[in-house]
């Protein structure tokens, strides 16, 4: 009898779980992946740490230039980094990363790419790079409205905006009649 119970317990433990899988894990809030056709990331960098930030971007640029991975090559094909000529209101340097086109769902975080591509420099560069930020990154998914170098897109391509019923513009108020009919 005890052998049968032990065997049953062993079978229960070895049996695959028939329970339904839980919900997928939430997306990483730090991800720099885009869902649109273009993307933009703005990084505010402490004025005393611009050299650290730029060193990582330059090292990453050099590593990506010689990289042979086709996915990374496609993802970084339209990646350009600009430095604003003037600081923000708090004196921070602003760096704008433009991804045109952006590869959907590709994580463009420089820190991940540095970890992967610049292994010999990663410990020396990554910590000062991570400390260089004055705040969280601003990320925008972009959809092209117009390309000023090309002929305009016909208006019928764009559908008129849908106004929800509860937010419709109210009709003009009726004219108020003054006493005496005037």
Give a verbal description of the structure:
With 182 residues, the protein is of the alpha+beta class. The chain has a domain at 38-141: Alpha-Beta Plaits. The chain is built from 5 helices and 4 strands, in the order αβααββααβ. It has helices at 2-14, 50-66, 70-76, 110-117, 122-131; strands at 38-45, 79-83, 93-99, 138-142. It has a 4-stranded antiparallel beta sheet with strand order 2-3-1-4, with helices on one face. The longest helix is centred in the N-terminal third of the chain and has 17 residues, at 50-66. The radius of gyration is 28 Å and the shape is elongated. The chain starts with a helix and ends in a 40-residue tail after the last strand.
List the helices and strands and how they pair.
Layout: H1 2-14, E1 38-45, H2 50-66, H3 70-76, E2 79-83, E3 93-99, H4 110-117, H5 122-131, E4 138-142
Antiparallel strand pairs: 1-3, 1-4, 2-3
Which key terms come to mind for this protein?
single chain, 182 residues, alpha+beta, Alpha-Beta Plaits, 4-stranded antiparallel sheet, elongated
How do you describe this structure in short?
By secondary structure, the chain is of the alpha+beta class. It has helices at residues 2-14, 50-66, 70-76, 110-117, 122-131, and strands at residues 38-45, 79-83, 93-99, 138-142. A four-stranded antiparallel sheet has the order 2-3-1-4, covered by helices on one side.
């Amino acid at each position: 009898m005890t052998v049968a119970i032990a065997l049953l317990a062993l079978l229960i433990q070895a049996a695959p779980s028939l329970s339904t899988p839980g919900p997928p894990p939430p997306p990483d809030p730090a991800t720099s992946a885009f869902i649109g056709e273009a993307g933009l990331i703005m990084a505010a960098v402490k004025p005393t740490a611009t050299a650290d930030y730029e060193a990582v971007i330059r090292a990453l640029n050099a590593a990506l230039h010689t990289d042979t991975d086709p996915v990374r090559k496609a993802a970084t094909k339209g990646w350009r980094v600009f430095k604003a000529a003037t600081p923000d209101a708090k004196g921070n340097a602003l760096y704008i990363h433009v991804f045109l086109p952006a590869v959907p769902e590709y994580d463009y975080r420089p820190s991940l790419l540095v970890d992967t591509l610049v292994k010999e420099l990663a410990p020396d560069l990554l910590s000062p790079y991570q400390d260089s930020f004055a705040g969280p990154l601003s990320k925008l998914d972009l959809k092209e409205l117009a390309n000023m170098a090309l002929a305009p897109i016909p208006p019928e391509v764009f559908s008129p905006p849908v106004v929800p019923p509860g937010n419709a513009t109210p009709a003009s108020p009726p004219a108020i009649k003054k006493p005496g009919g005037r």
